[in-house]
Structure formats: C-alpha cells, structure tokens
Specification:
- With 149 residues, the protein is mainly α.
- The protein is built from five helices and no strands.
- Helix 1 runs parallel beside helix 3, helix 1 packs antiparallel against helix 4 and helix 2 packs antiparallel against helix 3.
- The longest helix has 36 residues.
Length: 149
C-alpha cells in the first residue's frame, strides 16, 4: 500500500469514525431526553395516547423491525466490503440503521410514556454499534485486496 493511499484510507476512516461516534452520542442524548422527560425536568405537552396493550403490540413490531436491521446491516456490509471505495458509505449506512433502533425506542417512549421500552431499544442500538463498528485493520485488508486485483 502506497503512503498516499494509506493516508487517504486513514483520512476516510477518521472521518467515518467521527460520524459514528457522533451517532452513538446521539443515542445517549436520547437517553438524557427520556430521563429528563420521565422525571419531569423537561416539560413536554405530548399526550400519552397509546393504551398499554397497543403500546405492547407496537413495541413488538418495532423489535421485529430492529432484528431485521441486523440482517440488513450484514447484507450492506457484505456489499460494501467488495469494493474499498464503498467502505465509508457502508459504515455510515450501518451507523444509521443502528441509530434508527434507538429512535424507535424514543418514539415508543413519547407515545406510551414507558421509559423501560426506550432503554430496551437503546441497548439493542448500542449492541449493533458495538458488533458492527468498523475496524481500521479490516478496511486496510480490503483496501490492499482491492489494490492488487
């Protein structure tokens, strides 16, 4: 790998890493909002209109969709891994799908008022960030592989 291409790869990875860390931070920001609203520190005038049984149905539907995110992320990582120039786009798509799970929990909390539901989705979201977060060594290996093909 030439020094120029190594620098380019490192720059792309750093930029992508910064975006990923910001998106992880947003999930924690949602947690702060949920705690603030739940403890009355942030006044919100959103009526909790979802009955408990409907909220449970919505929760399980969103959990199913969240599980589908796992397979969608795996698919896009496989596609992005075939070409080194797709690595940043694949990583950002992975971040977006991982964060979306946390957004599902936030929306469910705002509709039902149950903070525990949010924290379930937050845990799944952070788990996805953890297992799918890109590693520089993987990017470098794919870059080298594509350079010699």
């Amino acid at each position: 790998m030439s020094p120029t291409s190594r620098e380019l790869l490192m720059q792309q990875f750093r930029t992508t890493n910064f975006i990923g860390l910001a998106m992880i931070g947003s999930v924690f920001l949602y947690a702060g909002l949920v705690l603030g609203i739940n403890h009355g520190l942030i006044p919100v005038k959103i009526p909790r209109t979802l009955p408990a049984d409907t909220a449970n149905i919505v929760k399980y539907i969103l959990l199913f969709v969240s599980i589908l995110h796992y397979f969608i992320i795996k698919f896009f990582q496989k596609v992005a891994g075939k070409a080194a120039n797709r690595l940043p786009a694949g990583a950002i798509l992975t971040f977006a799908l991982s964060e979306a799970v946390g957004v599902y929990g936030l929306v469910l909390f705002l509709l039902s008022g149950n903070a525990n539901d949010f924290f379930i989705f937050m845990a799944v979201s952070l788990f996805y960030f953890y297992i799918f977060y890109p590693k520089y060594t993987d990017w470098e290996r794919l870059w080298k592989k594509n350079e010699f093909e």
